[in-house]
Amino acid sequence: NGLPLPVPDGAMVEVRAFSGSTVFTFQCEVVRVCVSPFAYLHLSFPTLIRGAVIRKGERVRVDIPAKVAAAKDGAKADWLPASIVDIGTGGALIESRHELGGPNDVIRAAFSFNIEPDNYEASVSVQAVIQKVTRTTEPGAAGREVICYGVQFRDMQPGQTIVLQNLVDQRLIDNHHNIA
Known about the structure:
Layout: E1 12-18, E2 22-34, E3 40-43, E4 49-53, E5 60-72, E6 75-76, E7 80-87, E8 91-96, E9 106-115, E10 120-137, E11 145-154, H1 158-174
Antiparallel strand pairs: 1-2, 2-3, 2-4, 5-6, 5-7, 5-9, 7-8, 8-11, 9-10, 10-11
């Protein structure tokens, strides 16, 4: 209910952290609970840290309009509007109100964004394989269903990888809280 969990000194806790490409987990002891100037914990140094690579590269939060198309039953589908909400050189999270397919289906995505400092418009059109599909509801009164597609890019051209890496690096430089 928005209240902090009471954690006593000496409690054993399991910590999980995500770096943008790797998830880490470790157990440690709460050495001290502090409440001023804000609530935080002093933790013992872990004896074992486990890590697992989740993504091949970091992703950053974005809001890029896109169009996507899926091939169903051997026929090409029409382009549909979508939005890219996080992106990296290896993949993206695409939100759409349209059904694009399921895990392992191939889609095509096309989008453009500006590269600083010269405000150069880069356009990318790429095939992607759907890795994960989740459904959510838009916040607010409308409450429409949004389908989120975690995709992995396939057969990227070197120039596309370079402009996407530039976008990721620029977002990380501008605000390190952009890691998705």
